[in-house]
Amino acid sequence: MTDKLKPLRQQIDEIDAQILELLSRRGRVAQEVGHVKAETNAPVFRPEREAQVLRGVADRNPGPLKNGDVQTIFREIMSACRALEKRVTVAYLGPAGTFSEEAVYKQFGSAIEGMPCASIDEVFRATEAGTADFGVVPVENSSEGAINRTLDLLLGTTTVISGEVSIPVHHSLMTRTGTMEGVTVVCAHSQALAQCQVWLNLHHPDIERRAVASNAEAARMASQDPSIAAIASEMAGEQYKLGVVEAHIQDDPHNRTRFVVIGKLHTNPSGRDHTSLVLAVPNKAGAVYDLLAPVAKHGVSMTRFESRPARIGTWEYYFYVDVEGHVQDANVARALEELKQNAAFFKVLGSYPVSL
Ligand SMILES: O=C(O)C(=O)C[C@]1(C(=O)O)C=C[C@@H](O)C=C1
C-alpha cells in the first residue's frame, strides 16, 4: 500500500510545486495590473472580468474536477490576486455565519475585509459613505419572494448594482444537545420561520416560534440556552457548536436567495448580463401595459417584475424590472430610452454579470 502511494505522492508534490510557481507568477502580474490601475485611478474590482474568467474556466475545464469546484478555486485565486492590488471591504447583513456572509464569499472569495452590519439599512449607509467599497444585500428568495426593505432602499440610494449572486439556502434545526429535549421555543429570522413552516407544523406544531434579528443570532442564543432551538445554516451551527436535530428542513428543497452587490462601480458588459430598473407610471388605465411595450418591441427579455406600493397614500406602485442584457447593448439602450418617455419615474439600478 505505502509502496504504491509513494510515487503518486511524489507526482502530487511535483505538480504542487508547478502550481505554486504559476500562482506566484500570476500574483506578480496582478501586482503590475495594480500599478497600471493606480496610475489611472481605475477600479480594482472588475466583476465583468471575473465573471468572464470564471465562465472561461468552466468552458475549458478538461475534468475530472467538477466545474463548480474549479470555479471555487479560481474565485479564490482571483480574490488573492485582487488583494495584492487592494483588499476590498464588503459590508453585509451580519453577524458572521449568515447566508449573506456566504454570498459575500461566493462573490468576492475570502481575501477581503468583511464588515458585518446590524441591518440592511446599515449596509447601504456604509457603502454610500464609502466606509465599505461594496455591500451585499438580499433581494429575493425563491419561496418567500422580495426582500422589501432592500427594494425600498434601492429606490433612493446613490449606489448602483454592480453584481448579483445566488446561493442555495438550506436550513437546519439545531440545539446545544442535538435533541429537542427540554426545548420550548424555536428561534430564527422571520424569513426562515416562513420557509420552514410546513415542516414545523408537521413535526413541532406546539412549540413556540420566535422571530429574531438573524438566523446566526438564533444560533448564538441556542448555544447559551438549552430551551432554545435555532433554525440556521449548518455553517452558523458549527460556529456556535450546535448539534443538528434535523438537516434541510426548508419546505422547498430548491430554496435559493438572490443577493445584489451595491457600490459606486458601473460594471462593463461581460457578455451575459442583467439590468435592473425601477419605474412608476401615471395612474391611468392600460399604463403598465403601455409602459412595458418597448421591452418586447426591442426583443429584450424580462426576467423579473415586482411591484411595491409607493406609500404616498394612493394606489400607486413602483415596478422593479430586471431584463436580460447590459445598458450598453444597443437593443437594451433603445428599449430603456422608450420606457423612460412613458414613465413617471425611471431609474436604472445597474447592469451586471448574470450570477454563476
Ligand atoms: O484584470 C484585472 O483587472 C485584474 O485586476 C486581475 C484580476 C485577476 O486576478 O484576474 C483581479 C481583480 C479584478 O477584479 C479582475 C481580475
From TrEMBL:
Residues annotated as domain ACT: 276-353
Catalytic activity, EC: 4.2.1.51, 5.4.99.5
Alphabetized SMART domains for the sequence: CM_2
Location(s), subcellular: Cytoplasm
Keyword annotations of the record: Amino-acid biosynthesis, Aromatic amino acid biosynthesis, Cytoplasm, Isomerase, Lyase, Multifunctional enzyme, Phenylalanine biosynthesis
Pfam families: ACT, CM_2, PDT
Gene3D superfamilies xrefs: 3.30.70.260, Chorismate mutase, Periplasmic binding protein-like II
Residue intervals of the Chorismate mutase domain: 1-89
Pathway per the UniProt entry: Amino-acid biosynthesis; L-phenylalanine biosynthesis; phenylpyruvate from prephenate: step 1/1; Metabolic intermediate biosynthesis; prephenate biosynthesis; prephenate from chorismate: step 1/1
Major subcellular location class: cytoplasm
Residues of the Prephenate dehydratase domain: 89-264
Membrane-spanning parts: none
Domain of life (superkingdom): Bacteria
GO molecular function, one term: prephenate dehydratase activity
Listed InterPro entries: ACT-like_dom_sf, ACT_dom, Chor_mutase/pphenate_deHydtase, Chorismate_II_sf, CM_dom_sf, CM_II_prokaryot, G/b/e-P-prot_chorismate_mutase, Preph_deHydtase
Keyword Lipoprotein attributed: no
Catalytic activity, reaction form: chorismate = prephenate; prephenate + H(+) = 3-phenylpyruvate + CO2 + H2O
Function: Catalyzes the Claisen rearrangement of chorismate to prephenate and the decarboxylation/dehydration of prephenate to phenylpyruvate.
Full protein name: Bifunctional chorismate mutase/prephenate dehydratase
Gene giving rise to this polypeptide: pheA
